[in-house]
Design a protein that fits this description.
The chain has 290 residues and is an alpha+beta fold. It is built from five helices and 15 strands.
Length: 290
């Protein structure tokens, strides 16, 4: 939800950011508290719940067998769908949430389009006949933090939590195959999410860049640079948003800064997901980090 600031309030915020001092005490490149919970939807193969400031995001992953894309007969597919609750933000009432939902879906789709991001060949069951399709449903329950960054963390957590059932394939005499799902609920395999990127949104306020902007800081932002960064620092997507311009030299500098932030963010998310994985369901709760 947009807030209305006077020119003097904007000047105060911009000057403080230039001095690396924000209203909540963070430095320019610090995130607020992030909370991650996995395995929250029993009807899904994988799920997660992420909170960043006031942003609240729920992600569910369902896996289904289907025919492959004829152009890629040995690869599975990932499909991303985003829904913004009308209660997430007053601006989302009616059809207001469709634009942001389309943006999130498109940016994540671009970020995951890299062949190094997710091993789609591992989702192949029978080449040219049957592959696993990953349906990723993102629900924006509340909006009030760095939405793109939080959504990417929630998707990565849900895919990390995804369990794909093992299959028994019986070939008939005519070469046709009959596929059965094993009855053992623990006979599953996990996805390799080590190369799945997290999004880092860098907002330009004055001559400085910040991450995880507050609503007041968003009002002072002239342009944004959204980067998809993997654990190794590989960039899989870059997008500029906002009406303002960015100087080419500043873009090169901020790309390096964004890589460092992305590597750190991926490492923090990975650590918390490993903690979630090793904790029993009865005793687990939100994992927090800064």
């Amino acid at each position: 939800m947009a807030v209305s600031l006077s020119e003097s309030e904007k000047t105060y915020i911009i000057q403080n950011i230039q001095d690396d001092l924000r209203s909540d005490g963070r430095s320019c490149l610090d995130y607020r508290f992030i909370e991650i919970e996995t395995d929250v939807i029993s009807s899904c193969n994988g799920s997660s719940h992420v909170r960043l400031a006031n942003s609240d995001i729920l992600v569910g992953v369902k896996v289904e067998l289907d025919e492959p894309d004829p152009a890629k007969p040995n690869e599975g597919r990932i499909r991303i769908f985003v829904d913004c609750s009308a209660n997430a933000d007053p601006e989302f009432e009616g059809r207001g949430g469709e634009d942001i939902a389309d943006d999130i879906s498109m940016i994540l789709g671009q970020a995951y389009s890299s062949p190094q991001c997710l091993d789609l060949e591992s989702l192949c069951v029978i080449p040219g006949q049957q592959v696993w399709i990953l349906y990723v449903d993102i629900v924006i329950l509340e909006c009030g933090g760095s939405l793109l960054d939080a959504a990417s963390m929630a998707v990565k957590a849900a895919l990390f939590n995804t369990k794909i059932p093992s299959l028994v394939i019986n070939y008939e005499t005519e070469g046709r195959a009959e596929i059965d799902v094993t009855e053992d609920p623990f006979d599953v395999k996990s996805l390799d999410t080590s190369n799945i990127p997290c999004l880092v949104t860098l907002c330009r306020v004055g001559h400085q860049f910040i991450v995880d902007a507050t609503q007041e800081e968003e009002e002072c932002c002239v342009a944004k640079l959204v980067m998809a960064v993997s654990e190794s620092g590989t960039l899989t997507a870059v997008r500029k948003c906002g009406p303002g311009s960015l100087h080419p030299e500043s873009i090169l500098d901020i790309l390096e800064t964004g890589k460092e932030i992305g590597i750190m963010l991926n490492e923090k998310v990975k650590q918390k997901l490993e903690i979630e994985k090793s904790t029993t369901h009865e005793g687990k709760g939100f994992s927090k980090f800064e």
